[in-house]
Task: structure prediction
Amino acid sequence: MQKETSLADSLTTDEVQRRIAELGPWFHNISLRGVQTAPDHFLGDYPSMKWKNFQNAIPQDLHGLSVLDIGCNGGFYSIEMKKRGAAHVLGIDHDEDYLNQARFAADVLDLDIEFRRMSVYELPKLGRRFDLVLFMGVLYHLRHPLLALDILRQHVTEDWLVFQSMLRGSRARPQIDEDYPFWEKGVFDHPGYPKMHFIEKSYSQDPTNWWTPNRACAEAMLRSAGFKIESMPEEEVFICRCDENAELHSLPEGMA
Ligand SMILES: C[S@@+](CC[C@H](N)C(=O)[O-])C[C@H]1O[C@@H](n2cnc3c(N)ncnc32)[C@H](O)[C@@H]1O
Result:
């Protein structure tokens, strides 16, 4: 039987270059036929430079596993998961322009990945769980970050959650007591007390940066949603699993 010609086979390098320009600007720098999608990224070779610091914390072989990549953007992490053999990779994003970038990148690389326009808040509608969920660089763009974590734990994560957030403030992890009397006020002034900074206007010229937690807050939110943190292989990345003994908090009506 004749092999179907893939986009990867049929496009010239010039055509790849032209299509990359048409689909831009890109946030993910991906090499497509030797052409970089975002060579001038303000963070450098992003997200490869981040990925190399935690890629060994995720199994090399994902055969037989399902992966959900939330806020997949140009598809960098979806592509890496598919390259590791994941049986099914679904990338979701609420931005159609990014999804078109991701579809093009996967086509050029000849990888079978599903990309769908969807918000993290709509995930209960999927009615299914994924062995591995990536929730990278999205939390701080959300108006309702804890709601999103509760949804991930209660509706879509079967086992592993790979979580990343921009973190600001203290990296301390003080011992927090189970309870404090009403007149204890000083504990809140400890720089390491779990804190979420609310950004009313804008940060880094991005008005969708709504929140930035300190490290203790990110950890506390993950635990409160029902995840246990297994490791932190990179300064912003947490490898988590579902904590089967956690008390899960009720979701708003219609999301339960
Ligand atoms: C900073 S980028 C992170 C991209 C990628 N996950 C990474 O770590 O490199 C944030 C992405 O989340 C997407 N996003 C923001 N809010 C979302 C929402 N409510 N539901 C789904 N995706 C969202 C944005 O469109 C964007 O692609």
About this structure: The radius of gyration is 20 Å. The chain has a mean pLDDT of 96. Residues 27, 47, 70-71, 73, 92-95, 98, 119-120, 136-138, 141-142, 164 surround S-adenosylmethionine (CB under 6 Å). DSSP finds seven helices and eleven strands in the chain.
